[in-house]
Design goal:
heterodimer; A: 475 residues; alpha/beta; six-stranded parallel sheet; five-stranded mixed sheet; B: 453 residues; ten-stranded mixed sheet; two-stranded antiparallel sheet; 44% helix; Tubulin (chain B); microtubule (chain B); cilium biogenesis/degradation (chain B)
């Protein structure tokens, strides 16, 4: 089995990362009752004998001694990382896995990317190499960051190039939080567009997420839970947003609910690689099946169910509802409507007591209402993992390569152009060594080219495609 | 003679387990409906073919398990040892840490060369345990990366290293509506490569097995385990021992050799399918009785109308009238739906098997013009009942029944290829556009040849 390393960059990246590690521990504790360090746990955790000083003391089998996250924490301010190190998860991290500074990036991509990039390049390389050495077979880097700020956006994307050069065979999966329209960071469009260019060029797969969608999902859950409409109570521990019953109790902060959703996304994404099932799906299969052309690697995700009622016997009607919900625009983690756009490919990752017939029945049922590109009419990738997430009997993660990301990118470009045309705040960037106006124009063209590709695909939507003439052979 | 089974990838290993389990359970079944002595001979023959013996008497499957990541093999090994009646050899597994990512090119060009030597060594050890080798049975799927890509590579190695032994590849045809998005690419690459290096391709379609589970077995929530068990039942009904000649009391020694001889008269035609009748849940079995006449009538119609199971058969389909042209009414399109056969093998197991009349299968109209039923049709039998079915009949057929599915896969792969989608994932590992074109060419040839039967 393989291992993955999580690299959390910036304030947002580290807050989400923190939620992720908490949930990961919770999940493995629930599944692994005997406390034996097995291959599933080793995908994200090392087993360390804390009595042995220094870096040795890695134990590969037997009882769990002390689990250490396979993570590198990077932030140019100390606040968030310090909090993590003083909080209930402090034992899970190693002080040697951190890179911090004091001054922060001032919401400036150029500071994050150019200044801190060159300043910390060696250290970053060293920490990454160390974490890779601890892995038997490293398959994937998960990078978590936000696009609108300075550190996550700038330094986070600087990292990508480093990873590509240093570990070309290891997949780079990026979870990116995109700024919403009312973002309070004025320069977030600049930061985002500059970061997008890096994502276009150096990421294998990007999962774009925006705060507005997460917020809407939280509101919806609160509404339902508090409305009293539900006959029976919501199962405890089943709220995707909550850390109740968590391994180590954390103080719930305002963004925690939203971060928990993203953390669950990452857990579910990797579940079929970590746990057994009748139809496994490894991480390298995600890229293989969902990325038909190298640049089109943006995947819209949706997670269902968001809570579970206390019913023990799930009638298949409810199971089918789970599938329907995955395609509704209310459950997407970015503002997008995949049902009314064009699918290039779609993956359904199911966990729990769901069989192949349930999967097939629902695909058949939903297919007619979805539009797939002509050369991929049956573009479904499916997986069945037997282990459900904590608090649920089953769950579904849908990953769609769909042209519905286009509006998000177009809006981003809009906001960028509004600022750029007036040259607002540009001097903050241009005064950084290595930054020129061409950086901006190149980033903008890169995004435009991407949008153009999606537009071209959209144009094929209404064209009925006949079968192409086949090769003819002499008999 | 013994058969060495090679289980490749998730599919191959999950299925392989069910096959060995079915073979074992059946051979130890008390409802064989025959004498004790006969039952013992049956058991011994089955054992020689598929199991070798360990000191403490627990039979070991003659199998090599290969996968590029460990979860499935671990599961398979533990399932076998849990049931306790038979097991896999402790050192018969080859495993790596990272899978093939559904990438045929990765399975073929990276895993293949890297691991072929170790895998061939394991196979050699298994071969040495056999007194006499009938050949290899390779279980794999076409849709994924390991079974398909690595499977193709290993089959070619087997051809080089064991050129005198037979190889039959058992292939899982994926569901029409995707399990894997690049399944059509993986399928055409697999089929074209296997066509060059394998002796016969025995195909099972997931869609067909699924329907059998739904309609005949009445299973509500169908799992892969259910599907694999139906598959194992069908394979068991083909591979369990049968008598070697009319009236002989010895069991057939070389099942693979005989299968090839009966069913693959020409190297251009290697695609075989299995039909089995009756198939039902154990619960219903207790209340059913059958006659050979009824079973064979259905089986024959299943053959000529290309039905996958005994329900929903199209009884309108008739073989074309041979000989003189008809007066007045010209049959339109030489019976579009009629399934012409190149060769057929019917295997009968159970009570009063000697009374079964197979005349219907000897009708020349069923067969292509250049091979008459004397050569094209064969029958094997035993009165020992199979898997608790008082009477069961299996049909292994080399016919047009796979033309449509093959044509569909080639068509879809071609459409995708025209847009160049996903090609970069293959060229990354050395499979170029020419390799795709070669595959398309070969398979179009196969489709055309079968169409013209």
């Amino acid at each position: 089995m393989t291992q993955s390393v999580v690299v959390q960059v910036g304030q947002c990246g580290n807050q989400i990362g923190c939620c992720f590690w908490d949930l990961a521990l919770r999940e493995h504790a629930a599944v692994n009752q005997k406390g034996i360090y097995d291959e599933a746990i080793s995908s994200f955790f090392r087993n360390v004998d804390t009595r042995v000083a220094g870096d040795g003391g890695s134990i590969s089998k037997g009882k769990i001694c002390s689990l250490k996250a396979r993570a590198v924490l990077i932030d140019m301010e100390e606040g968030v990382v310090n909090e993590i190190l003083q909080g209930p998860l402090r034992d899970v991290f190693d002080s040697k896995q951190l890179i911090t500074d004091i001054s922060g990036s001032g919401n400036n991509w150029a500071v994050g990317h150019k200044v801190f990039g060159s300043l910390y390049q060696e250290q970053i390389l060293e920490k990454l190499r160390k974490s890779a050495e601890h892995c038997d077979c490293l398959q994937c880097f998960f990078i978590i960051h936000s696009m609108g700020g300075g550190t996550g956006s700038g330094l986070g994307t600087f990292l990508l190039k480093v990873l590509e050069d240093e570990f070309p065979e290891v997949y780079r999966f990026v979870t990116s939080i995109y700024p919403s329209g009312e973002d309070d960071v004025i320069t977030s469009p600049y930061n985002s567009i500059l970061a997008m260019k890096e994502l276009n060029e150096h990421a294998d797969c990007v999962l774009p997420i925006d705060n507005q969608s997460l917020f809407d999902i939280i509101s919806k859950i609160d509404l339902v839970v508090n409305s009293g409409k539900l006959g029976t109570a919501v199962k405890p521990k089943s709220l995707v947003t909550s850390s109740a019953g968590a391994f180590k109790q954390r103080q719930e902060k305002p963004f925690d609910a939203m971060n928990n959703i993203v953390a669950n996304l990452l857990l579910n994404l990797t579940s079929s690689a970590r746990f057994e099932g009748s139809l496994n799906m490894d991480l390298n299969e995600i890229s293989m099946n969902l990325v038909p052309f190298p640049q089109l690697h943006y995947l819209v995700s949706s997670l269902t169910p968001l809570y579970t009622l206390a019913d023990v016997n799930i009638p298949s009607r409810r199971l089918d509802q789970m599938f329907s919900d995955a395609f509704s625009k209310d459950h997407q983690l970015i503002q997008a409507d995949p049902k009314h756009s064009l699918y290039l490919a779609c993956a359904l990752m199911v966990r729990g007591n769901v069989q192949i017939s349930d999967l097939r029945r629902n695909i058949e049922r939903l297919k007619p209402s979805l539009q797939f590109v002509s050369w991929n009419q049956e573009g479904w990738k499916t997986s069945l993992c037997s282990v459900p997430p904590v608090g649920h009997s089953h769950s579904l993660l849908a990953l769609a390569n769909n042209t519905c990301v286009k509006p998000t990118f177009m809006e981003l470009r809009e906001r960028f152009m509004r600022l750029y045309k007036k040259k607002a705040h540009l001097h903050h960037y241009l005064q950084i060594e290595g930054m020129e106006e061409s950086c901006f124009s190149e980033a903008a063209s890169s995004l435009s080219a991407l949008i153009q590709e999606y537009s071209q695909l959209d144009a094929t939507k209404s064209m009925p495609m006949g079968d192409l003439p086949r090769l003819r052979v002499a008999v | 003679m013994s058969i060495v089974t090679l289980q490749l990838g998730q599919s191959g290993n999950q299925i392989g387990f069910e096959v060995f389990d079915t073979l074992f359970s059946d051979s130890h079944c008390s409802q064989g409906l025959c004498s004790k002595r006969e039952n013992e001979a049956y058991q011994a023959a089955c054992k020689e073919r598929f199991f070798s013996e360990e000191e403490n008497g627990v039979p070991i499957a003659r199998a090599v398990l290969v996968d590029m990541e460990p979860k499935v093999i671990n599961q398979t090994l533990s399932k076998a040892s849990q049931c306790g009646r038979w097991k896999y050899g402790q050192r018969s597994c080859f495993c790596q840490k990272q899978g093939s990512g559904n990438n045929w090119a990765y399975g073929y060009s990276v895993h293949g060369p890297r691991h072929a030597e170790s895998i061939m060594n394991l196979i050699q050890k298994e071969v040495e345990k056999c007194d006499s080798l009938s050949g290899f049975f390779i279980v794999m799927s076409m849709a994924g990366g390991t079974g398909s890509g690595l499977g193709a590579f290993i089959t070619r190695n087997l051809q080089d290293q064991y050129s005198n032994s037979l190889k039959m590849n058992h292939i899982i045809w994926p569901y029409g509506t995707g399990e894997v998005i690049v399944q059509n690419y993986n399928s055409i690459l697999t089929l074209s490569h296997l066509y060059r290096s394998s002796d016969a391709l025995l195909v099972h379609e997931n869609d067909a097995l699924h329907k059998i589970c739904a309609k005949l077995m009445n299973i509500k929530q169908i799992s892969f385990r259910d599907i694999n068990q139906v598959l194992a039942h069908q394979l068991g009904s083909v591979f369990q021992p049968t008598y070697s000649e009319e009236g002989s009391s010895h069991y057939r020694r070389n099942p693979l050799g005989d299968l090839m001889e009966n069913l693959v008269p020409h190297p251009e035609f290697k695609m075989l399918g299995v039909r089995n009748i009756p198939q039902m849940s154990e619960h219903s079995l207790a209340y059913s009785t059958f006659t050979w006449a009824g079973l064979l009538k259905h089986l024959r119609q299943m053959l000529i109308s290309n039905a996958k199971m005994e329900e929903g058969i199209d009884w309108q389909v008739r073989p074309p009238l041979s000989g003189a042209p008809t007066l007045g009414k010209m049959p339109v399109n030489r019976n579009l739906h009629f399934n012409t056969s190149l060769a057929n093998l019917v295997i009968l197991r159970g009570k009063e098997v000697h009374s079964a009349d197979l005349g219907g299968f000897k009708d020349p109209a069923l067969y292509t013009s250049w091979l008459g039923p004397d050569n094209a049709f064969n029958m094997w039998k035993t009165q020992r009942a199979f898997n608790k079915y008082e009477k069961s009949a299996a049909l292994v057929s080399n016919s047009q029944f796979l033309v449509k599915p093959l044509d569909m896969i080639v068509g879809k792969a071609w459409n995708m290829f025209a847009s160049k989608a996903y090609i970069h994932q293959y060229t990354k590992f050395g499979i170029e556009e020419e390799d795709f074109l070669d595959s398309f060419t070969l398979l179009e040839q196969v489709v055309a040849s079968y169409r013209n039967l």
